[in-house]
Design brief:
It is a single chain. Helices cover 58% and strands 10% of the residues. It contains 12 helices and 12 strands. The chain has a two-stranded antiparallel sheet with strand order 1-4. Strands 2-3 form a two-stranded antiparallel sheet. Helix 9 (245-263) packs across helix 11. The chain is globular, with a radius of gyration of 34 Å. It starts with a helix and ends with a helix.
């Protein structure tokens, strides 16, 4: 370890000119797989000190530190964050490090109608709250509705779909196979990033973010296949062999839950969530009855993943791809059945309307014939009376 961190030097190169060798006395070598491990070991003591603070949860990734304060009032969360910042500042000062307060972002997560404007003082400066913030490539909004992340996906998709139209068209460009490969490998993978956080499985139709992404995928599939706008979506997905986007996101979510269980991180996440819920229950003043976790929560998603990966016909667990094929087949059958019902309903409506038109026409004809007879009879009576008068 001493040889790895000592006697290191570096130099810079600009336009073919090299500088003199400069000794590097701080930090870890860049690009080495051992460097992030050493950095995590170096900062582990900070996380241990922050664990002792009530109402505070810490999440770290590389050199980014995220503090989550849980309380009933904004003033209480401000006090918790300011105390945590004091711990971080003291720890950094004793170890020759420093944080960057100007890069700090503040967000109040609440479902209130109006956003909270409570500021937090960090490093002699006040940090104002933001409406949206980016965390590991996922955009968070204060209500956790994922509208900000969906807006960023649409903005990215607009550029990628434009590039796809320049490469493939109905009469020229790359083949269907190449266009599909480009979509599944580049565009769909970028869209599905962060699906484990924002995607909520739903049946039989998608909802939430997946419902909006389904329309975006349909536009891309029409470019890939060169199809008309009136082409049914299920036919597009079958011809291009691209499953519905919500079923694909289900696979990504199931794989993510399987990795959590395999690595043992699921228990860690459950412990953090349980601690946050306990803090909220204590601050509400009275205990509430425990409810079964919904599909939006982590435990609910894990239960859904276990149920989805179970094949009732075979009585055994199936893989994610097999579950995708099964769900896609069931979706196709339900869509075809719904289409047949709509067609039968429209046919029955046309038949009823046409029968009503014939009945109305016959009634009108009888009424016109009766009126004509009455007019002719009255005309004859007038004529006869006139003749008699004459």
């Amino acid at each position: 370890m001493r040889s790895f961190l000592s006697a290191r030097r570096a130099r810079l190169r600009f336009d073919g000119e090299d500088t003199d060798w400069i000794g590097v006395t701080a930090g870890v070598p860049q690009g080495s797989p051992l460097s992030p491990i050493l950095f995590i070991l170096y900062t582990a003591s900070l996380y241990k000190e922050l664990e002792t603070h009530a109402g505070l949860a810490t999440v770290g990734f590389a050199d980014d530190l995220n503090l989550l304060a849980v309380a009933r009032k904004p003033g209480e969360t401000r006090d918790i964050l300011e105390k945590a910042w004091g711990v971080c500042e003291t720890w950094a000062r004793t170890r020759g490090m420093q944080f960057a307060p100007q890069k700090t972002e503040l967000m109040h997560f609440t479902r209130a109608r109006a956003p909270i404007q409570q500021r937090v003082r960090i490093g002699g400066a006040e940090v104002s709250p933001q409406v949206v913030a980016r965390f590991l490539g996922v955009w968070l909004d204060r209500k956790l509705r994922w509208s900000a992340h969906l807006g960023q996906i649409r903005k990215r998709l607009k550029t990628q779909r434009f590039a796809l139209t320049r490469l493939a068209a109905s009469t020229w460009g790359c083949s269907l196979h190449r266009a599909r490969m480009l979509y599944t490998a580049v565009i769909r993978s970028a869209v599905a990033y962060g699906a484990a956080a924002y995607h909520v499985p739903a049946a039989p139709k998608p909802r939430g973010v997946a419902r909006s992404l389904a329309r975006e995928q349909n536009r891309c599939l029409r470019v890939i296949a060169g199809a008309f706008r009136a082409t049914p979506v299920r036919n597009l997905e079958t011809e291009t062999f691209v499953p519905p986007i919500d079923l694909y996101l289900n696979v990504r979510l199931a794989d993510f839950e399987a990795r959590l269980q395999l690595t043992g991180k699921a228990q860690l996440i459950d412990n953090v969530c349980a601690g946050v819920r306990a803090q909220l229950r204590r601050r509400r003043g009275r205990p509430r009855k425990q409810k079964q976790p919904t599909i939006e929560e982590g435990a609910g998603k894990l239960r859904w993943a276990k149920e989805r990966m179970w094949d009732g016909t075979r009585g055994a667990r199936c893989e994610a791809r097999e579950a995708l094929a099964r769900d896609w087949r069931e979706r196709w059958q339900s869509d075809c059945a719904a289409a047949r019902r709509r067609t039968a309903h429209r046919s029955s409506r046309r038949a009823s309307v046409s029968r009503g038109t014939r009945a109305y026409g016959s009634t009108k004809a009888r009424y016109s014939y009766r009126c004509a007879r009455e007019r002719s009879a009255s005309a004859r009576s007038y004529t006869s009376a006139g003749c008699r008068m004459c």
